[in-house]
Amino acid sequence: MEKKISSVISILLVAVLLLAACSSSSSSSEKTTIKYWSMWNKGEPQQVVIQKIIDEYEDANQNVKVDVQWMGREVMSKVRNAALSGDAPDLTEQSGAEIEGALINNKLVEPLNDLLSKKIPKEGTAFQDVFIDDILPFYQKEGNTYFIPYEIISSGFHYNETLFKKYGVEPPATWDQFVEINKKFQSEGLAPLAQDGNIDFYNAYYYYWLVERLMGPGALVKAAGDKTGETWSQPEYLEAAKKVQELADNKFFAEGYKGSQYPAAQTAWASGKSAMILVGSWLSSETAEYSSKDFKYKAFPFPEVEGGKGGKDQAELYLIGWVAPKGADKKAVQDFLAFAM
Fold it and tell me: Are strands 191-194 and 274-280 parallel, antiparallel or unpaired?
């Protein structure tokens, strides 16, 4: 079942973790090690944030060592294999959908129910009370909480407000308006759309957003789940594909996009070589070092399609968060997560 929240989310919420100098006590003199396999690569903004949390936690808890391995985006396949062999880490993270498919649905996770009422050190606030509505329960199963989210991600068209003002362009509300501003930038000699062609889901964004705008939320997952394939015969699925093809036929995408290797296109966009890019809300953190001083990061939702059933108040939302694989030291993990929040 597709899980959506109808709210427009325009920024990446990477600052959800408060890094106050908290303290947590333990009566045991025996050293505890929390084995942590992270989805982040060393040097990424989130890796820096989490490393700071780990350092502060270890400073406040001299009898605990957080043994973190920065393993990158393929971490979940490694965790699943380790969990099946009984040698999983105590803590890992990924998008909620990947965690649900790899671990939760296969009962390779530990419930973290005791964490909900646990007080955040030095704050006195119950852990479950620091989350906005409907976020913490997103992946709850049979009354158990396995997934602890700390980041919310959405997607949309990103642009430089300074550049839009230079060309007298306003963010479009409809698909027809979107096509017109593409033509405007093209006539000025600027590539309208940046695209890293080697990233599969970046390419899929255009199609699935058009399906959702034409048919309303849930249309794509409905078709994907229809084993007969009959749902795909509805004309809107073909119409969405034709609209994507029209963008390519009109040469709105920057030259060479089919062979563009991430992050070449988004780097070029941040350098002012293209006008817009459809990607996730993490983009500013990935491209800030390439943008000029007068670059003003802005984003607009995927435009509505005239006559479509979907609206701009419907947004993609997915979560990244922590989970304790089967066999984890739950007490140690929950103590660390309470500190982190």
Answer: parallel
Residue 341 banded pLDDT, cuts 50, 70, 90: confident
Question: Exposed (0-12), middle (13-18) or buried (19+): which is 222, by Cβ within 10 Å?
Answer: middle
Looking at the chain, the whole-number percentage of residues with pLDDT higher than 90 is 83
Q: Are residues 162 and 306 both part of a single domain?
A: yes
Residue in the structure block whose two tokens are 């089919």: 258
Residue 261 lies in a domain: yes
How many domains, the chain?
A: 2
Decide: pTM greater than 0.85.
Answer: no
pLDDT, tens digit, for every residue of 197-238?
999 999 999 999 999 999 999 999 999 999 999 999 999 999
**Alpha-carbon distance values, 83 to 32, 141, 162, 165 (Å):** 20, 19, 49, 53
Structure tokens belonging to residue 12:
């990446």
Domain match, 52 and 124 both: yes
The answer for residues whose C-beta is within 8 angstroms of residue 29's C-beta and 6 or more apart is: 63
State whether 61 and 177 are in the same domain. Answer: no
**Of 332, 259, 340, residue with least CA distance to 112:** 332
- Tell me: do 330 and 232 sit in the same domain: no
Residue type, 53: I
Longest dimension (CA), the chain: 71
24 within a domain of the structure (yes/no) = no
The domain in which residue 263 lies consists of 155-316
Tell me how many helices (H) and strands (E) the chain has: 11, 9
Are 208 and 302 members of one domain?
A: yes
Cα–Cα distance measured from residue 341 to residue 110, given in angstroms and rounded to the nearest whole number = 19
**In-domain check, residue 10:** no
Q: How far apart are CA 130 and CA 121, in angstroms?
A: 13
Q: Which of 261, 317, 98, 279 is nearest to 203 (CA)?
A: 279
